Amino acid sequence: MKKILFLTIFSLSGCQTVQNLTAIAPPTETSIDGKVVTINVPKGINSSDSDFKGIFFQNAENSFYDQSGNILKYTSFNFQVVKPNELEQKVCKGEQMRNGQRYQSCIYLDSKFQIVDKHELYQIDIKPYRIRSVQGRDAIYLPIGLPKLSIDDWYSLFAKQRMSFVYKMTSTYSPESIKGNFDRKLERLNFERSSRDNAALRQYKDTYKINVASNVTVRIGASFYPYKNGTLVETYIDAESISGQPDWNVNTALIKSKLDQTIND
Predict the structure, then answer these.
(1) What is the dihedral sign for C-alpha 180, 185, 191, 196?
(2) How far apart are CA 132 and CA 48, in angstroms?
(3) Which terminus of the chain faces fewer neighbouring Cβ atoms within 10 Å, N or C?
(4) pLDDT digits (tens, 9 = 90+) for 175-214
(5) Can you tell me the distance from the alpha carbon of 252 to that of 243, in angstroms, rounded to the nearest whole number?
(6) Domain ranges in the chain?
(7) In Å, how far are 48, 91, 144, 206, 221 from 203, measured between CA atoms?
(8) CATH topology for 162-264?
């Protein structure tokens, strides 16, 4: 019986060894005139480890074991700023041995980007200009096929983004009253042991989901503290786009408005 195990890993550790891609076929390079991808990011959510003012593109890996159960076949997706104002988007198809050795073939989409200060927000413009491919081999020197991606597939990877920030509010209502509003008006979020939820969100006892757009998933961690004659509410917002091209400036305003209404209603 074919043994298959599907995995999704959203933060690549980089601990595996990747076999040097000795050319099965000469590397190829094609210039393209790609359309500009524009991302609007509000000020105030910047993260020190983000190259895009608090926005992170989603690195991921989908994998399964082959019929022998000894070889992990995978497709990985990775974004990396390789030099100032240049973004490399890499998609690899490969095999990993039990000893951790990896063999793969990769396609690269190279883009130029610029970040423009628009006073109330940052406008990030990304323009693809080149596609490269490097075909590698497996452990017995047979070619590994290159990943198959259309230009639409490339743009769909750009649309998978994530951002997080802390938002604090005060109210004259009691902590018990505010928490009651959250419990009644927002959808409770329950974590599973197998979920990939980040550690920051798990620090909160009370977690919720809210809807602000059909292509964006928003999860909230909340703490309620007595403050002066009322309550201080601290929320941690973890938002992830799943399709389309999100406008984070608009979405952030909608998230804050939803939370403000919840504590004061």
Answers:
(1) negative
(2) 30
(3) N
(4) 999 999 999 999 998 876 445 667 888 889 899 999 998 9
(5) 17
(6) 7-158, 162-264
(7) 21, 33, 43, 9, 8
(8) Alpha-D-Glucose-1,6-Bisphosphate; Chain A, domain 4 (3.30.530)
- As given in the structure block, the two tokens for residue 31 are 């210039």
Distance CA 78, CA 93 (A): 12
pTM here is 0.84
User: How much is the pLDDT for 25?
Assistant: 77
How is residue 50 written in tokens? Answer: 């983000």
Pair of tokens at residue 158: 């750009």
Look at 17-21, 99-103, 113-117 and tell me which has the smallest mean pLDDT.
Answer: 17-21
The length of the chain is 265
List the beta bridge partners of residue 92. 76, 106
What DSSP letter does each residue of 34-78 carry, written as one string? PPPEEEEEETT---TT-SBTTBEE--EEEEEE-TTSS-EEEEEEE
Q: Which two tokens stand for residue 188?
A: 């409770």
Using CA atoms in the order 148, 152, 157, 159, what is the torsion angle rounded to 10 degrees? -170
Q: Are strands 17-18 and 101-117 parallel, antiparallel or unpaired?
A: parallel
Half-sphere exposure of 52 (CA within 13 A, CB side): 27
What angle do the packed helices 248-264 and 175-185 form, to 10 degrees? 120
Cα separation of 194 and 137, whole Å? Answer: 33
Q: At 168, list the tokens.
A: 């604090």
What's the CA gap between 211 and 251, in Å, rounded? Answer: 10
